Amino acid sequence: MDARASVAASGAVAAVWRIESARIVATLARVTGDFALAEDLAQDALAEALQTWPRDGVPDNPGAWLTAVAKRRAIDGWRRRARLEERHATLARDLTERADQWEQAPWQPIPDDVLRLIFTACHPVLAPEAQVALTLRVVGGLGSDEIAAAFLVSVPTIQARITRAKKTLSAAQVPFEVPDPSEWAERLGGVLAVLYSVFTEGYAATSGEGWVRDDLAREAIRLTRVLVQLVPREPEALGLLALMELQSSRFGARTDAAGEPILLPDQDRRRWDRSAIARGRGALRTLDATGRGRGAYGLQAAIAAVHAAAARYEETDWERIVLLYEALGRIAPGPVVALNHAVAVSMASGPAAALPMLEDLAAGGMLRDSHLLPAVRGEVLARLGRTDEARAELLRAADLAGNATRRRSLLAKALALGQRPGGASGADPKL
């Protein structure tokens, strides 16, 4: 096998998997009725692609090729395991027909393969964190390191959580089928958490080279729009859509021509997408019109709306943002919320007011393996003129950062200390 052809084929397989994996696994899960089997079949098809594509070339429709190979392997496996000849023929025939029959059905409660997969995987037999971790692996195509970063836990913990979730589904003999609309409410929290996590990874990648994974973020927005059509009066679905639209409005201003990050204080707001801002504000108004109040996603959307309202960074209403973070901390407490609250306080009342909040977070230990806390602490210490301490914190943050672009940015800040006045970076991970 030609080495260059092998490398090219490996790159093609990786690219196709990144783009098509959710739909491939969703199709296989729908046809086989088994989540773990669907994932195994997809991986087997990838292995066959690595053997076949260097020799025969990449097919015109690689996603369909992988799906067809995986279906064929499922047929072969069922034939081997089946004990009755009648079952052999029925399963082999039905497997090739069921996907088309599904698509031809006159109505489906959830009109999107990937969203159906998310609802199905967020089964109440699993703990919420297991629902999200398992679904992120398949729907987002995220690796264990990326999911671990989202949960602020170690990679082995996430791997064990995903394995345990699969075993739980198997032990409970959970059918892999689309839930009835009457069951949506108990799964909605997990679905929203999955969509938010996929968007967050797209907005600010935790690993790899790129600062933004636009494909992930756009897919999360698309799925959330579909979800809002299904539950148009659900405040948190509307809040999540508003948040995503408002945050995505900054995509065009968040990187320079070389792909390096441009943080919020330095962004050219003329490059913000005004139509996305209008859609986000519209979703927030629709949420408020339900009369059911803002939840965690709605409050985060309100924070993003405050940023969108400021023509310049210096005009940001930080006092309003502090109040919104205080409300968010009461209904959805967590270390990242507390960290962002401290950032807002540092901007509204000065860095000295925020430093004790950061010290409390450090003492709590929940962010000890994340770059976020030392990055913010480094910025605050720099603004207080404590340059040596600030540099040490920024270097520690760079060491903890999994994303190469973020790491370079933090190293550059550490090196620049003492060469120019320190300034706030907008350390909120959504900035």
Automatic annotation (TrEMBL):
Secreted listed as a keyword: no
Domain RNA polymerase sigma-70 region: from-to ranges: 23-83
Keywords: DNA-binding, Sigma factor, Transcription, Transcription regulation
Organism: Pseudolysinimonas kribbensis
Pfam families hit by this protein: DUF6596, Sigma70_r2, Sigma70_r4_2
Coiled-coil segments on the chain, per record: none
SUPFAM superfamilies: Sigma2 domain of RNA polymerase sigma factors, Sigma3 and sigma4 domains of RNA polymerase sigma factors
Protein name: RNA polymerase sigma factor
RNA polymerase sigma factor 70 region 4 type domain boundaries: 118-169
Domain DUF6596: 187-285
Family: Belongs to the sigma-70 factor family. ECF subfamily.
